[in-house]
Every structure is written in structure tokens, then in C-alpha cells.
Amino acid sequence: MRPIVLLSLLLTTPLFAHDFWIEPSTFHPAKDQVVSAALRVGQKVNGDPLPRIPNLIDRFVLLGKSGETPVIGQPGRDPAGYATISETGLSWIGYQSHPYPVTLEAKPFEDYLREEGLERIVSERAKQGRSAVAGKERFYRCAKALLDVNGPKDALEKPLGFTLELVPHKNPYALKPGAELPLTLFFNGKPATNVLVVAMNKAEPDKAVRVRTDAKGNAKLRLGRDGFWLIKAVQMEAAPEGAGVDWESWWASITFELPSSVKQ
Description:
Blueprint: H1 3-10, E1 19-24, E2 34-43, E3 46-50, E4 57-64, E5 67-70, E6 81-84, E7 89-97, E8 100-104, H2 106-115, H3 119-127, E9 135-149, E10 164-168, E11 180-187, E12 190-191, E13 196-201, E14 204-212, E15 218-222, E16 227-238, E17 247-258
């Protein structure tokens, strides 16, 4: 199927109203192993595949201690990309999208705002007398997956420079059982304050850990069990004049998989 046709079909589905994350073929590859990066869209860490759509990709990269390389792939394919892990230690696979516009009727739009901790947008719409008006936004995806190749236990704090980005200050794979993971949420390179950060485990997504960033954009999340973790945050701002939409949103996520030694 041609990429433009595939893009048209995908963007008429409700997939783009949910969370977005990266699922690599393994979070713990061997040195020189080729790792695939599957893109997933869904809820409660249960996702549908999103193939590689060149029109949507702004950046799709692998970042390690020695620098950044592109994640390659074929249009229309799932997994969406492949990268060779050429060094030990931690690496990020990162994906940032171009914007895509979407319109939701007033009630589902306001429900989604509240679910994602965006009550300030609900209040702003009320002040404008637009609570009953459909929500028009364009959104961006900013996702990362953390890979570990038997390296040092230091954190990989170097950001990829995504518009909205979660940056852990400890290596999740080096956490002691029941320890907290400190991180900072950056928006346009600056700390993002009072933003809801949610951590969900694939085995128990309803037992989510929720915390808001402080005045310095920091948050601490207690990860009480092993397995696949998705941490996410959403930032929304008024769209620039003439954008054709009322709001812009950025959806950041990080994924990693803790070994069974991390338990409650």
C-alpha cells in the first residue's frame, strides 16, 4: 500500500486520540544487535501498531553516549524502524512527529482534558464562553524508549531536544526495589511546571502512579514492580493566530522494562 494512502486511512481512525509510545523488540539488547522499534497508539499500555509514515516523522533517532544516528525503516512497515546498538551502556530510541490536526466535539474534548490533567484549558475555555464548542487542536508526539546494554549504571540525562521531553535523573534499571525515579519534564527546553505525569505498568495499568511537576519541572515516581513501564505527560497551549486550530498539544512518553528483581 502506498504511504500516502496508508496515511489517509490511519488519520481517519480514532487512534490519534490516545497515548503513544515505543515498544522495542528488546530493552536489553546485546552489543551490535539490531533492535526494531514499534510505534504503538492506544490506552492503558494496550496499543495498536502505527507503521512508519514518512509524512509524520520529524525525528526518529538512536542516541547513545557517542552521539545520534537515524532509525531507518521502510514506509508502511511495522515495526516502524531499526537501529544497530553499537555500544554498551544506555541508549534512547526517540521519535518526534510533525503536527496533525484533530477536532473533537465539546464533551469528549473536555473529558479528555480532565483525564490528562489539563483542567486549566477547561477553565480557559469557560472564561472564553466556549465550553460547549468543539475542540480544535493539532498534536505532536514526543516518545522515547530506554535501552540498556550491560553498561554503567549512571543515568543518560542528555535530552534529545524534543519539544516536550521527560528526562530521568536516575537509571531506571539501577533502581532499588520500591525506589523513586526522579525526572524533569522540559517544554521548549525549559522546566514545565504543574503538569500531570502518569506512570503505568502494562501488567497493572489501572494502578497508575500520578504526580504533578513542581515549580522546577521535577517529579518523583515510585515504581513498585517489575515489567514494562510507560510514563507520559501532556502539555497544551493556545495555538498561534492563523494556525487554523485553537490549541496545540504535545504528548511525551518514555518506556522501559524493569527486570524481575524490582518488586514491591
